[in-house]
Amino acid sequence: MEGRGAIVAVMDEAEMRRRVEAARVARLATVRPGGRPHVVPVVFALDGDTLYTSVDGKPKSTRRLRRLENVAANPDVELVVDHYDEAWEMLWWVRLSGSARVVADGPERERGVELLRARYPQYERWGPLGEMIVVEVASWRGWSMEG
Q: Do the bridges between strand 26-31 and strand 92-103 make them parallel or antiparallel, or are there none, so unpaired?
């Protein structure tokens, strides 16, 4: 689609993966009991089509977060990684849809901890202390506007 000298493009899988892997934060959407959405920013690590995010040590009112309860009740999740710029030619987003589960311990949690520590030096101080949310990504969708 063309308009005002810009081309709207749907990204291919390789480009979506490159942008997601370079991103530092995503927005995780879970479903509350009753069907209402719940969206929070998260840090994450990606290993192929498996995404890891964890409860970290930053101050919180509780370690049993709403997102953990939501995933336990309904595994359907989506994550959005995006870039905003005042120059709209630079806009893009990638949406990952999948099935999530809460992992409290074991090799799968340890793999997530390893990946998160390698990606975020802050985890040396704030550490992944709680459960890990593991998402098996079933689909990738992306959009970018290139000028």
A: unpaired
Instruction: Select from 19, 3, 44 the least CA-distant residue to 141.
Output: 19
- Answer yes or no: are the C-beta atoms of 93 and 81 closer than 8 Å: yes
Looking at the domain that runs over 2-146, which CATH code has it been given? 2.30.110.10
Overall average pLDDT of the 118-133 stretch: 84
Q: Is the pLDDT of residue 76 over 80?
A: yes
Query: How far is it, in rounded angstroms, from Cα 7 to Cα 4?
Result: 9
Q: What is the mean pLDDT of the segment spanning 64-87?
A: 94
pLDDT band for position 99 (cuts 50, 70, 90)? very high
CA–centroid distance for 106 within its chain: 22
pTM: 0.87
Residue 146 CB partners (closer than 8 Å, separation 6+): 6, 7, 9, 89
Alpha helices in the chain, H assignment, sequence order: 13-22, 66-73, 107-119, 123-126
Kindly calculate the radius of gyration of the chain based on its CA atoms and give it in whole angstroms. Answer: 16
